[in-house]
Every structure is written in C-alpha cells, then in structure tokens.
Amino acid sequence: MTNWVFIRGLGRQKTHWKGFPEKLQARLGGDIHCLDLPGVGEKSPLKSPLRISEYSENLHQELSSLKSKADPQTPWALVAVSLGGMVGLDWVSRFPSDFQTLVTINTSSKDLSPLFHRLQPRALKTVLRLFWSNDIRAREKAILELTTNLVTIDEELLDLWVSFDRQYPLTRPVFLRQLLAATGFRLPPSLPTRTLVLASEQDHLAHPQCSRALARHFQTELAVHPTAGHDLVLDAPEWAIDQLEKFMMSKK
After folding, report:
1. CATH number (domain holding residue 204)
2. Is this structure's pTM higher than 0.85?
3. Which residue of 43, 56, 65, 185 sits 20 to 30 Å from the alpha carbon of 33, by its own alpha carbon?
4. What is the tally of structural domains in the chain?
C-alpha cells in the first residue's frame, strides 16, 4: 500500500485532476492527497514564488503535517504534471526521505530542452493571447483545446472548469510568476528517488522530447502515450494508471 500526493501544473489547481486520483486509488489503494501550489486554489492567499525551490519547500511543510498523522511505515509517492513535475524533481532532491516514488508527466527543464520545445510556438501564441483575456469561458476552452486531444470539450466540462476559476480566480500576477519560475527551472544534480517519466507524443504545449531528455539524463523509466495531449491524465487516465501500476509492481 502506498500513500499518494498529486500536484498540478501552470495555472491549475487540485480540482483539475477531475477524479484521476480516485480512479488510481480504486486500482492501487492507499490514501490520496491533492495539494495546491502556492498562489492557486486553496492557497490563493499566498504569494506565488519566482523560484521552484520555494514551491517545494512550501509543499514539504504541508506533507510533514500529513505524515505526522499517517502510518510511519507506509511509503509515499508523488504524481506531478508539467510545472508540478519541476517542483517534484526539486522536492525529492531537497527532501529525499519524503517520497519513495516520483512520477512526472510532460515535464521539462532549461538544462536539457530549448525554449521552443518547452513552450512550443503554437502554445506560446495561445498563452500570450490568454494572458490578456478577461473571458473566463473562452480562456478555459482555449486551454482545453491546447492541452487535450482525446476528451470531448462539451458545455458540461467547460462549466466545471469555469466553476473552478470562479471559486479561486487565477490572477495575471500569479500566472506570470509561475511562468517565470518554470522557465528558469534547472534540474537538481541528482535524483535520489525512484522515478517514472510519462509523456504524450501529441503534446502541443511541451514537446515530448523534453520528457525523453529527462528520462535519458536520469536514466529513469519512460512511457509515452501515442495520441494524448499535455493533460495526459484527462485524456488517457486508464493508460496512466496502467503505467503507474506496472511501475509500482516492478519494484517488488
């Protein structure tokens, strides 16, 4: 049995997992804990840092509180998307005893990948346009169109995404500060935690070569979905859980 921690990426909050943690729990068991990055969701009152290390320090403190109430013998795993994956890589490097497993999804770093791979031209154009938009529904539709390939973007899904923003609005300063933190992220010198890298071949935001470079650099396992977009767990949740289950079982 493993306890699971989930963190999302740029401009997203924990509600954007849309049931993926519960699906994983139903298959693999364990407790699940979805955490927000400083500046978004339930942590909207906090200032969004400009350095990835400050995100990981904030989350480490939150995890320490969770662990104080948990069985000390139960291992912990971190599943993190995009910017969240950068935080995860930094987190396990700084606090190696926090997790026994790390899973990154469509994550990149400036050490290994050029900017036009980390934020592809189509994505950059969309991001710049959305930065100035005040139309929440149009913005969320454009984000889904950029980050998903396999889900149906219907009115129900848009209503859900819009409701998340209305509860905890994403502000321009937070988005910009997160983007600056992401673009400046460099890899830690070593990776002490057993790691699985997941990627999407048809990711239109971060090129899949970013994840391939990451897996090569740290000599970790890599699995690539052939048709999913950047939001892999929304596009192909069952496939992602299959990969996690296979990876978790392989260490036994």
Report:
1. 3.40.50.1820
2. yes
3. 185
4. 1
